[in-house]
Amino acid sequence: MAAYFQPARAAARGVVVWLHGFLGDQREWQAVAAACVEHDHLFIDLPGHGGSAQLSAVDFAHVNEQLIATLDSYNILNYWLVGYSLGGRIAMFHATQGDTPGLRGLVVEGGHPGLLNADERNARFLADKQWAQRFHNEPIETVLDAWYRQPVFATLTDTQREALITLRARNKPAALATMLEATSLGRQPPLYAPLAQLPVPFHYLCGERDTKFRALAATLNASLHLITGAGHNAHRENPAAVACCLNAILRP
């Protein structure tokens, strides 16, 4: 996968690997990472996004294989994994596969650990297939406007929504559709049990106004950190608070 490595501005304490959410790219975390000066950073473009738009994936296991290959290509042997939304779901999947000797810790912002009910998974996959069809068939700005009017993004202001639509419209709709189906929450295995057995620290970040994911976080065996003045997209709505939280997690 395409990636950008940024060395630490101070004595390096290790590498932080950053995974963006659906519709994002490697720039998504850079404002937060700029305040984490004691770590090297690897910003990754997930398949179908940014510099990896030409890459596709068939499922979570395939994305995980590509992630491991990317880490190997940069000779990253010890790392913290930080992921938002889709990136958080991929990070949780990676951490629970049992082949991660270099993983030192996991930080997830607004990532779903998986649906336990098979009917719910089927319904979600059908819903994501409908979104994928919209990305294929409608102007991307129209689809993005509808996407960011979903309840989980209810805390966005009109100005914030318009800024995100403008930013995300640079993506390639067909590539997004492929990735959305491959990594639908309906195709994600429930990860509650393996997450409870993680041998490394597990931290969960959540905007204080993100009621859905606050409730989900309460079901996890993770250290919960609430970000003030933020909803589902906490690192964009309050990057300074997220950076402060991450520095406290990463420094010990």
TrEMBL record:
Coiled coil: none annotated. Pfam families: Abhydrolase_6 (PF12697). Residues 16-243 form the AB hydrolase-1 domain. InterPro entries: AB_hydrolase_1, AB_hydrolase_fold, SHCHC_synthase_MenH. GO terms for molecular function: 2-succinyl-6-hydroxy-2,4-cyclohexadiene-1-carboxylate synthase activity. SUPFAM superfamilies: alpha/beta-Hydrolases. Monomer. Catalyzes a proton abstraction reaction that results in 2,5-elimination of pyruvate from 2-succinyl-5-enolpyruvyl-6-hydroxy-3-cyclohexene-1-carboxylate (SEPHCHC) and the formation of 2-succinyl-6-hydroxy-2,4-cyclohexadiene-1-carboxylate (SHCHC). HAMAP family: MenH (MF_01660). This is 2-succinyl-6-hydroxy-2,4-cyclohexadiene-1-carboxylate synthase.
